[in-house]
Amino acid sequence: MSSQPTAKADGTVLTGVSETALMTLQVRANEARRPDSIIDDPMAIQLVDSIDFEWAKFGFSRRQDMAVRARAFDTEARRYLTDHPKATVVALAEGLQTSFYRLDAAGVGHEFHWLTVDLPPMIELRRKLLPQSDRVELCAQSALDFSWMDRVDDTDGVFITAEGLLMYLQPEEALGLIAECAKRFPGGRMMFDLAPAWFAKGITSGMLRPTVRYRVPAMPFSLTPSQLANLVNEVPGIRAVHDMPLPPGRGKAFNAVLWTVQRLPLFDPVRPITALLEFG
């Protein structure tokens, strides 16, 4: 007798900013399916195949930008874990990222711990669809509820990620979160990304949207490279600020544009930011 197919999880339980996690997951999974993929992410493929959702509403998804971003975060987390193998990685508003599983297979050992902080519907999806590990703790609350910090054992180091989060916060919320992390976790690091102001304004106004059926939530927070660099002077506890270049992707044309935009100051006002903060 054949077994009944397993029912898929309902992706429509995610709304607002949480729904964007489905879009980034789809892009990353499509990239991972390619024979010439720039990211090894079987868990992303498994997640997409396990979720019932009208994926077409997001429009074009055969692109590599989300995989490049994921690789950037993986690279810095891996570098930190190489020096702090028993550290805790805190993934704020992790969504449907699968970073833990990629890093766990990346040769940094299996001693680091992971804390996922996200809203209850997302945590429920992760609990239902992803393999459980005694090194992964799920915290069902907003990243702006700072009580999650009480769960972090910072004895062996802390690496905080806010991948795809801060741009959706109000400026005072984003800066307040950064300041509190700097205050609570001296010696730790924090990594986040931001869209450029022109793009954020287009998204917020509705002028830029993937399809007529889907509108990305407003992005009220952005920083220029010079504003980012000045955080070291404005936020107590920040010891150093790094404006990180994204890693190469696939294709000579893509990489030529990426290299040019990231290295010529002329493009500073219009390029996205990937930031790494060191707390002292």
Q: Any chance you could write out the topology, listing elements then pairs?
A:
Elements: E1 9-10, H1 20-33, H2 42-50, E2 51-52, H3 65-83, E3 88-92, H4 99-104, E4 113-118, H5 120-129, E5 136-140, E6 158-162, H6 171-184, E7 189-194, H7 197-205, H8 225-229, H9 231-234, E8 238-243, H10 252-263, E9 273-279
Parallel strand pairs: 1-2, 3-4, 3-6, 4-5, 6-7
Antiparallel strand pairs: 7-9, 8-9
Short précis:
It is built from ten helices and nine strands.
Descriptive keywords:
single chain; 280 residues; alpha/beta; Rossmann fold; 2 domains; 7-stranded mixed sheet; two-stranded parallel sheet; 36% helix; 16% strand
Task: Provide structural commentary.
Keywords: Methyltransferase, Transferase. This is O-methyltransferase involved in polyketide biosynthesis. GO terms for molecular function: methyltransferase activity. InterPro entries: Ppm1/Ppm2/Tcmp (IPR007213), SAM-dependent_MTases_sf (IPR029063), TcmP-like (IPR016874). There is one protein chain. The protein has 280 residues and is α/β, with parallel strands linked by helices. It folds into 2 domains: 9-58, no CATH class; 67-279, Rossmann fold, CATH 3.40.50.150. It is 36% helix and 16% strand. It has helices spanning 20-33, 42-50, 65-83, 99-104, 120-129, 171-184, 197-205, 225-229, 231-234, 252-263, and strands at 9-10, 51-52, 88-92, 113-118, 136-140, 158-162, 189-194, 238-243, 273-279. Strand 3 (88-92), helix 4 (99-104) and strand 4 form a beta-alpha-beta unit. Helix 1 (20-33) crosses helix 2 and helix 1 (20-33) crosses helix 3 (65-83). The longest helix is centred in the N-terminal third of the chain and has 19 residues, at 65-83. The protein is globular, with a radius of gyration of 18 Å.
